[in-house]
Amino acid sequence: MKKKKEAEKKKAEKQEELENEGDEIAQIGGQLAEIKDKMESAHMLMEDSASDRGIMNKAKMFGDENFCKKFGYLKKGCVLMFYQRYNDAFDELAKAVNIIKYQKELENDKMDLIKQRWRFKLELDEGFEIPYAIDKVHPDDISDREL
Length: 147
What we know:
By secondary structure, this protein is mainly α. The protein is 80% helix and 0% strand.
């Protein structure tokens, strides 16, 4: 009889362990589903940023070419100004300004991508704003209390 009781106790303990393991497996399954969702959203973001990397590559690719074009237009504009051909000089300077505007747009797109990537990495909300102007504050001026 003692052996039967001990065997029944062992079976009951094993059954409880299996139920506990089942609960743990269910919790792990839930965690895995959450991780999978995060991975899918990260993958989608990476695909988006990969397609947007073309913008960054364009900016790098045209860097030297744009430099030469800009200063070529500016030099031509200076020469035309010297010869008092103001309208033609203005047209040449406008071409250089258009190149600069295009480069600024590329830089802004690049910064937006960087901001979006860091928001995702830090899991920040879209409306999150730093409480002070980051470009006007030097890191040495901020104490731990202010953070």
